[in-house]
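user: Please review this fold.
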Amino acid sequence: MGHHLEMSNWPRRQTFDFFLDYDQPFFNICAGVDVRPTLEACRAQGRSFFLASWYACMKAVNSIEPFRYRLRDKQVWVHDKIHVGATVLTRDEVFRFCYFEWAETFAAFEADGIPALEKIKQTPAGGPLVSRDQRDDLVHGSVIPWLSFTSLAHAKRFDAGLSTPRIAFGKYTTQGEEVHMPVSVEVHHALMDAIHVARFFEAFQNELSTPTWLNP
């Protein structure tokens, strides 16, 4: 569900028009978040940090309206809720896409996410690479747990209608009293600016710092 954005009085209308027809309209920001409170809570409770970090990310994404914007026929559609499709490594060391629907509680998100993860991990060699490109109510997620990156560029099609954000998590490392995880956020400049990405990072950090949503 959702609705079209009323663009006639939208303060960013001129910025939207300016970037709409760029050959490469995406911009990328990489920054770090402190995952220590959520990581320690997951370890203490025997919970999946992978699922917890994506749930915290989805809470942040859904709280920042421009992250719910998508291009449709040169108009802006505003989704009510955004979900995530994330890469998961199989036992044969190839990645497949795993899709997680938004849930109002982490318990519900986890209950659906655990079997979805296990199913993908057991995908046999040569199994299908299922991509739900027809859906735009997602963010495209990646996890790169082997590298603590400082920049990232994604493969992409040069499709004028493509506007789905891409978010990637890197390897977390201990830095003083914090556990630092690099996060890459790539978004369409016609739909948002750096201030909106900064607000996402702030909201994401708030969720990670106070993971009360982990409690049953």
Summary: Helices lie at 13-20, 36-45, 49-63, 106-121, 194-209. The two ends are 28 Å apart (CA to CA).
